[in-house]
Records
---
Amino acid sequence: MRGNPIIKNPLTLTCIECGKKSEFRSIQHKCPECGGFLWFECKLEKFKDKFSKIKINNNFWDYNFTFPSIKKDFIISLGEGGTPCRASKSFSEKLNIKNLFFKDETKNPTNSFKDRAAALLVSHARSWDFNKIVCASNGNQGASIAAYSSLERIECLNIIPNEIDLGKKAQIIAYDSDLKTIGNTVDDAIDYVIDNNELNDYYQCTPELNPLTLEAQKTIAYEIINQIELPNWIIIPMGSGELLVSLWKGFNELKEIEIIKDIPKLIGVQSQSSSPIINDFFNNHKHKKESPKNIKSMALGILVQKPLYKNLAIKCIKDSKGTVIAIPENFIFPSIEQLIRDEGIFAEPSSALTLAAIQLLEQKQTFESKDSVVCLITGSGLKAPYILEAISSQTKTTGKGSIIITKLKILSQISLSSIKGITGTDIKETMGTISLAAIYQHLKELEIKGLISRKKEGKNVLYFITNSGKRVLDALDVLITLL
Ligand SMILES: [Zn+2]
């Protein structure tokens, strides 16, 4: 086995904190002088001209001129990027937001946005003549890296935590990667990669530890600007926070060369079960009561306890005049179903958080009706077996189980509209094939049990969740975390 290859074309990176530029012959993410994050600065002089020549929906490598130089011969591609930014079919009207879009990254080759980073990182590894690659991740990045390295027969080692979505693990194995399971969350897997000297001759593909990840992911911002008018808001799921930082960087580069006048306001979303970035955003240290080892969430793709990009992500959100929102666990599954049935998008739980976020923020009157909002759908729900099991179990039988599921769905819908209230007809729209009469029967029974209340407003009867109803949903939250 060979050792470190001799690097002829070093990577020039700049420290975000002290501004020092240095040349590197191995992948580094921290400034050797001050410990600040390193990132790549692309040459902006000829950028404007080249950017304006790119046609809508062209692919990821059209933006090669913004990456560190990678010659054509080294490029590894499976057709990543160029994903659709689709106008909402249904929620735009329901939420009274004129321009609502879904940037659908499930359309990438391994069904997540991580294919962008995998394409660039594995191509870069190849241009540096590495024949071994290591990646610690929650699964999506691991699956992508495994796919791209298997194309070139590059040896791939994936480090994953115990709890990852089975579909992602299966992809890693299917693409013939070596696999090591370390710890309960991705934090343990990342620490292992940082501390293990035996991995020094591997090319580093852990997204948080390779600054080129930001370069690959910022192309999502470029594509959005090439696909639609400059949006007012972008809603982004946050794990380590590096995806949000990537988009901020992409939009800022476009602002610097005057392709856009201002950057969109960035909204960072996490699950309430694990929201370390949001807690710090509000300086809310009281919420750190959970024992780190016991945190459970459906949104496994963004389950990170010590997000490496936390401080930078908070800076980016504040700089963009954006905000953050933590989503209760019991909102996730109804949002997944709504995305499937109303928008045709089969998203993973962390992506569905963006739809729940838009509904909750709309109730707080965060948006104006003329605003344009983009929800970033990062990965596919087909990778998460409990989503598949839950949906498969919803056969159209009328056993007690399905009656309870229907009642809980109705209760969740009412909870989502807890400030403004919701009509029976609006509930029906989110419930698929069930009749309006059946909905009203369920509403009547929920009201008798004291879980909901109603109020007449003009011709409409609006339903609201009561404190007892909230307690039932909270209890369900606890049950979900036991699964
Ligand atoms: Zn520095």
Note: The chain has two domains: 56-392, 396-482.
---
Amino acid sequence: MTTLPPFGIDPIFVGRVWGFRDLRPWYDRVADDDPIGEVWLTGDDCRVATGPHAGKRLAALFAEEHEALLGPRARSSASPLLLKTLFAREKLSVQVHPDDAMAQKYGEPRGKTECWYALAAEPGAKVALGVKPGVTLVQIEEEIRAGTLETSLNAVAVAAGDTLYVDAGTIHAIWPGSILLETQQNCDLTYRMFDYGRPRELHIAKSLEATKLVTRAGKIAPQQLADRTVLIDAEYFDMERIAPAESRTSASLRGGEAPGLAYLFAASGAGRLTGPEFAPVDLPPRGVVAVPAAAPDFVLEDAGSAEGRLDLIRIAPHGPE
Ligand SMILES: [Zn+2]
């Protein structure tokens, strides 16, 4: 198999009614019109920023190079994970995503289990995860109609550095006060239950069909290892925070005997990947570099930044997809 060097990805800034107009200092970006709520870091329409495939849509690269990206065990040629940063100035809708079985019933390849890592949080920041014990589907439906659904939701406090797991079927809502890195199965199905009177479409029947009253959603306890912290090790992805260092070798960032794809995300600071087989690749603040399964050896250096040291998060799809 030929090698495929690590490559940068250009983010896509997506307008959302609940977002921010000014994303500084997270990104050097001020919206002209609609506020920006989501920055898609690995969307199908994101463009490869560096290397031999620069300019290509990520989905097209996965279709062409799935084995080099995902490894020989990959079962699908699709991009498995969607990474975003989320900027909520207002409450997002109360929503739910289908699991794989329900998504496939409606003709989509996979459902959406996701997790949120809090890059920052104000005192008192909260999100809603699941419903309170004893709440029934009939009650949820009545409360959607009455506009009182929030009273049945389970509020969870969020502090910087927290990881929250949101398995498919969990009713959830993101509220203002935190800046989140979202990792999710690459699926476009969101069923909106309640939208605080905004005129966007609701999907009440499907949201009730997708809802599981009891799920595993909640805060995940980090697991401290010698040179990293395992933030989450879940069904579809794992995420680690790598301890700061002047430089790290690819071996320490690839993991496992049969490494697959990994994404490197700079939560703060900046990095640079260098290796004998490719031109240097920059990892900008809040940017992503993809490390394919077939990447040649490289070194990741802390590139130095006004923000201080590189705070590196490594996200990998779990198992062959
Ligand atoms: Zn969601």
Note: The CA atoms of residues 9 and 48 lie 5 Å apart.
